[in-house]
From TrEMBL:
Protein's name according to its UniProt entry: Nitrile hydratase subunit beta
InterPro entries: CN_hydtase_beta-like_N, CN_hydtase_beta_C, Elect_transpt_acc-like_dom_sf
Superkingdom of origin: Bacteria
Segments forming domain Nitrile hydratase beta subunit-like N-terminal: 11-85
Lineage: Bacteria, Bacillati, Actinomycetota, Actinomycetes, Pseudonocardiales
Leader peptide range in chain numbering: none
Matching Pfam families: NHase_beta_N
Length: 88
């Protein structure tokens, strides 16, 4: 991804400030690979929308919000199921 949606990088590799950020990156990669045959476009649209919706929000928080939208929008999980998993 490039532009606003591009993850922070150092030497071409994504940069994570906390372990959860790497995990949410991996979760998104798994969903994109399995559900969207590796096509990042649907996720990218969700991420651009999440960033535009709350530009002050930290990047990886927007990434997480985009992943939640993608999962719910694709019918993989309902909003309640996502909320329960976050609470756990």
């Amino acid at each position: 991804m490039d532009g606003t949606a591009a993850p922070p990088r150092r030497n071409g590799e994504p940069v994570f400030d906390a372990p959860w950020q790497g995990r949410v990156f991996g979760l998104a990669a798994g969903v994109v690979e399995r559900r969207f045959d590796g096509d990042w476009a649907p996720f990218r649209r969700c991420l651009v929308d999440a960033i535009a919706d709350r530009p002050e929000r930290a990047y990886w928080d927007s990434w997480t919000a985009a992943l939640e939208e993608l999962v719910v929008g694709a019918g993989l999980l309902g909003r309640d199921a996502v909320a329960r998993r976050i609470a756990d």
